[in-house]
Amino acid sequence: MQIKLPRAPWLRILAICSPGLLAILAASLFVMHRLSQNADGVCVDSGRVFSESELRQAVIRNLIQIDVDNANRQKDLFNEIFRTGIVKSPPKTVIRNLLDEFFDNGKSFEENFSIEVIAPGNRGFDLDTLQEPFLLIGYGTMRRDGAAIMASTDIHKIENSERLQKQHTYSLYERYRGFGKHFYRMKRTLIEKDCCDNNNHGRSEEEYLADKRTAYIGSKNSFDRNLAVLELIAQVSNCGAILTFKEEDTGFDLTSIQWIREQ
After folding, report:
1. Which of 52, 97, 105, 238 could cross-link with 178 by S-S, CB 3.0 to 4.6 Å?
2. 45/242: higher pLDDT
């Protein structure tokens, strides 16, 4: 019995292909379709293009989640040496001037900034209830540790990002995940802080205050030398995910944002 092949060339190819080759062709077509969707700005998880507001909210949510995950990871390794907190309705005074107000008042870092600790651990914080403006703060709990402060009002999408798109090359996997079209500019303020959530921490009140003064003087010097505020650019997917990498060389498996510079 003679088998007649279809006349259309592409149907003839499919008719004689092995199941393994068909699977490869199907996977290739799926990847090509996914890349085409991503190039059009579609968030493939939702099947549509996010509005500017939706994309920004997803970015903020993922920024917070990165710090929460890192705080939980460090607790697993070292006990509670890193915390993530939120300051709701933050003061309008700039941070440099706040340090002057907090310098000698005897209150701890957490008390002065009215920080609501959201990690490590499950502290009952509901991200869906968070309203802007707010501060996201990641900080160490050891003596003379530092803090990184980011205001929600300092998170902005970069419009007309064609130059950034040309400056950076993305792997097939990164493009498959939807990166390459969106970039967000952010500001992060770094300060030295006094120790812990307990004022004394085994020291006298005067010893604590002296330590606090030293930390805040160092912070103010950083402001005066224009070293305290960092302007950063994050690479964002069509779904609002942030491009990150794992700090595997430290052995801690923490997540860091893959910041880029505008050339």
Report:
1. 238
2. 242
